[in-house]
Amino acid sequence: MKKALLTILLLSAFTGIMAQEQYSEEYRMSPGDTLIWQPFLQCNNIGYKVSSKETIQFTPLHFGEKVQVIALKAGFCHLKATCGDVTVAAEITVADPVSEPTPTITMDKPQTLPFNAIYQFNPPADHFFITVTNPENEYRETFAKIGSEEAYNNGQGIDRFWNTSTGANYYYVPEAQGWTDDVKWDFEPFGNSFSPLNSFYQDVNTEEDLSQYYVGMEPVAGIDCWHFFVEFDEGYVVQYWVDPANGCTLRRQVNDKAPSEVTVYDLNYTRWFFGPKYKKSLHDKTR
Q: Can you point out the beta strands (E) in 111-177?
C-alpha cells in the first residue's frame, strides 16, 4: 500500500427519465490508492456490481450512498451503480506507479508503555447520539438511536429517520414539506457498530500484546482514552484513541492526515428532540 494514502472524492449527478448507461472517464489508480465514489446526489436504493474483486476492494459506505474502492493490484475493473432506470459506470485501471517513489513519511514513535488492561469491544447498542468528523471533507455525520428508532444525518443535506420494528421510513426536505414518508423498509439499520468506533477492533489483532502499541492516555470528547501507535507492514502509521469503557475508537489518524474523530459522544440519549413525530401537519417543516 502506498505510504501516503490518496483519497479522491468523485461526485456524479445524473438525471433523466429514460434508462441510460453513462461511462465516466477512466480512473487510474496505483495499488494502495483509495477512491471514494458517490454516483448519485440522492438515491434511496442503489445497486452495485463490480467486475473484479481481485483488482479492487469494494466497500459500501454511508448506507450505500457511496463506496470506498481500494486498489489492490494492477488490473482493470468495471464498476456499475444503478438507481431505478439509471445506470452509471466507472472504469478503473490499477497500474503500478512509474514515477519517482513518494518520499517516506517518517513519524517518531513515542515510547511504548506496559498495557496491563484487558481490551474488549462492546459498542453502544442503544440510547446514543454520536457525531463524527470525516477526514475526507469538512462534513460531519451523526448517528442516533433510541430503541427501534434510528436517525442519520450526513451533514450534506441527507437527513433520515426510520423504525427497525415497523419499517416506517422518513426523509427530511426542508425546502418542501419537512419530514416525508419514504418506502417502508428501504433503509439499512446501523447494525453492531460503525466507523470510526470499530476501527481499532477491525484493524488490529487485539488478542496480541497491546503493549507494543500503547503510548499512554489522552483525552478525546471528554474521555480519557488509551492511545495506540501502530506501524503497519505496508509502511504507514495509524494512531487510535480508544475509550477504555467499551473499546470504541474515538479518534483515528493515518500518518499526518486529518483524523476521523468523535465530536459528540452521548451514550445516555433518551429523548428525541427532532423527527417525524413532531410534524403537526402536511406542510409543517419542523425538524
A: 128-133, 140-146, 149-153, 159-163, 169-173
- Residue 62 host element (H or E): none
7 pLDDT more than 50? no
Burial class (CB in 10 A: 0-12, 13-18, 19+), 114: exposed
The whole-angstrom distance between residue 133's C-alpha and the CA centroid of its chain comes to 10
Element (H, E) at 253: strand 249-254
Place of cell 450505500: 64
Give Cβ neighbours of residue 244 (< 8 Å, ≥ 6 apart): 117, 224, 225, 226
Enumerate the H helices of 138-247 as residue ranges.
Answer: 199-203
As a 3-state breakdown, the chain gives helix, strand, coil percent values, each rounded to 5, of 5, 40, 55
Helices (H), 88-247: 199-203
Using DSSP's 3-state secondary structure scheme, residue 2 falls into coil
pTM score of the predicted model: 0.65
Q: CA-CA-CA-CA torsion for 55, 189, 42, 141, nearest 10 degrees?
A: -90
Q: What is the dihedral of CA 72, 75, 81, 86, to 10 degrees?
A: 160
Cis peptide preceding 196, ω within 30 of 0:
yes
The set of cell numbers assigned to 202 is 477491525
Work out whether strand 223-231 and strand 214-220 pair parallel, antiparallel, or are unpaired: antiparallel
Confidence grade of residue 13 (pLDDT, cut at 50, 70, 90): very low
Instruction: Report the alpha-carbon distance of residue 267 to residue 145 in Å, rounded.
Output: 10
